[in-house]
Amino acid sequence: MTQFLSALFLLFLAATSAFSQEVLLTGGYTRVGENSFTGAASGGLHTVFPLGRHVAAGVGLTAARNRQNYREFLPNADPFDPAGRPRAITEYHNSLYSLQGFVAGRMQLAPRLELLAGPSAGLYFVGARERSTEAKAGVGLWSSLTYRQLGGSRFNVEALFHPRLLLTSLPVDDADFRFGNQRLFIWDAQVGLSYDLRKQP
């Protein structure tokens, strides 16, 4: 999993340097809403590509992690000890990693205030140290509000809200999934800074 995420990050950097107009670094909270994974502090790295005067596209990586007390007994899955005792869990070390893309309309609300809103789709990895990591496809609605040229510079202030519906997990043999046949509704609420790689007029 670490090698896969590292490869995605390098691909993200390559695409950013070649095509991107704007890079966003954000932090905030991700809500999952499950008893064993309610939510966590999160951070994100996103990039925006212009597709015209009123349309933009983007890709982003987000990560959320927490440690949460939760008591659960799991059935014994050892084929060599079928009469063994169930495994007890008292806390989960949860993680949610996301790779998503979006296409959004651009709306100028004021001379320096811009709204992006549009559909998104991505791949999400939900896991815990105590259980298998599961991959889920998902769709959502990306929305971000940008206050441009902070103090006359290329830096901007960003606020984003991103609700998503994660579908049932991709099938894997002999995996111990918590949410395998379950759809998850999650959302991110984050704020941060962005930087214009190309000078804005």
TrEMBL record:
Signal sequence bounds: 1-20
Keywords of the record: Signal
Top-level taxon of origin: Bacteria
The name this protein goes by in its record: Outer membrane protein beta-barrel domain-containing protein
Lineage: Bacteria, Pseudomonadati, Bacteroidota, Cytophagia, Cytophagales
